[in-house]
Inverse folding.
């Protein structure tokens, strides 16, 4: 290789290193950017409300639930949900007479993180789909009639009885103008939608909290956005009205299933 050639190569080499240093300096001076962020107009990721679907297999699994096995498993639940399925704390739901499908779905949703509730998610993790069916069978059998021994906070008189007529209208007629169907057309006794729990023996404070959570999206495990779309239409006063109404034992009919 001639001397001139070698000199030319060295010059090219120096230029390359110079260019690289310049690029590095520019890269360091550029403001930090998050290149993994989604482009502004992209769709938000799809969120599936629940992994539960009412297939024949699922319905058969729930129907096979063994109430006696459920009774044994329920010893882990009694100190919160009550010995007889009626809780002594207004914010903790009653489980006596609970609808089997609804009960089972909630356990699955807690387990899958589809319904967020710190205490229940941790508890539900320890129970299989079959355990859930057994527990559901047990709680569905517990009577909803009062017993002098139980520590229930249900029924609890309405704090504001003037709200009873607001509640009655929503429960029986809904509000066609806002697209709210009557509560009793899904929650009974007029008809039941699969997975809709009876509300007639539930604690008012618990119901009100759930309605708030549906309306602000904190609870989003309802298939087809059924409850979120209804709760969004309700005013805070209407939520209080229907919750206190059911919580006072005024709701029509207790599920006979
Ligand atoms: C430490 C108290 C505690 C214990 C123990 C507990 N739960 Fe719960 N459970 C709660 C609370 C609080 C909620 C309401 C969660 C929320 O705010 O969404 C709840 C909700 C539920 C629901 C949903 C009810 C509905 O109407 O949607 C089911 C079903 C349930 N629990 C079943 C069980 C079972 C079965 C056990 C025992 C294996 C159990 N829980 C043990 C506190 C408890
Ligand atoms: C179109 C049917 C439908 C109508 C109408 C309806 N609901 Fe629901 N509701 C459901 C279903 C289904 C669920 C169970 C959601 C899930 O899968 O977690 C539910 C759940 C609820 C819950 C949670 C209960 C619990 O134990 O956690 C409350 C509270 C509730 N509904 C209140 C109401 C009120 C009040 C009305 C009337 C203003 C109403 N719903 C009307 C279908 C309906």
């Amino acid at each position: 290789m001639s001397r001139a050639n070698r000199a030319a190569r060295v010059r090219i080499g120096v230029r390359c290193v110079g260019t690289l240093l310049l690029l590095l300096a520019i890269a360091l001076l550029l403001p930090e950017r998050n290149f993994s962020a989604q482009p502004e107009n992209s769709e938000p990721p799809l969120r599936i409300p629940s992994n539960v679907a009412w297939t024949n297999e699922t319905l058969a699994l729930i129907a096979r639930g063994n109430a006696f096995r459920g009774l044994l498993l329920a010893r882990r639940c009694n100190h919160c949900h009550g010995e007889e399925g009626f809780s002594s704390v207004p914010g903790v739901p009653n489980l006596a007479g609970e609808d089997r499908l609804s009960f089972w779905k909630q356990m699955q949703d807690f387990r899958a993180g589809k319904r967020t509730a710190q205490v229940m998610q941790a508890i539900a993790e320890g129970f299989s789909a079959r355990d859930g069916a057994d527990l559901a069978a047990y709680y569905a059998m517990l009577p909803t009639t009062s017993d002098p021994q139980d520590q229930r906070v249900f029924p609890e008189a309405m704090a504001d009885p003037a709200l009873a007529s607001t509640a009655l209208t929503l429960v029986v007629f809904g509000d066609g103008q806002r697209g709210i169907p009557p509560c009793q057309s899904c929650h009974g006794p007029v008809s039941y939608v699969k997975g809709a729990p009876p509300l007639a023996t539930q604690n008012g404070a618990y119901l009100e909290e759930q309605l708030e959570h549906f309306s602000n999206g904190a609870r989003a495990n309802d298939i087809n956005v059924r409850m979120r779309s209804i709760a969004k239409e309700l005013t805070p006063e209407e939520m209080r009205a229907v919750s206190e109404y059911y919580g006072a034992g005024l709701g029509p009919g207790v599920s006979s299933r």
About this structure: Residues 76-77, 79-81, 92-93, 103, 106-107, 117, 119-120, 123, 135, 197 surround heme C (ligand 1) (CB under 6 Å). The chain has a mean pLDDT of 89. The chain is about 50% helix and 0% strand.
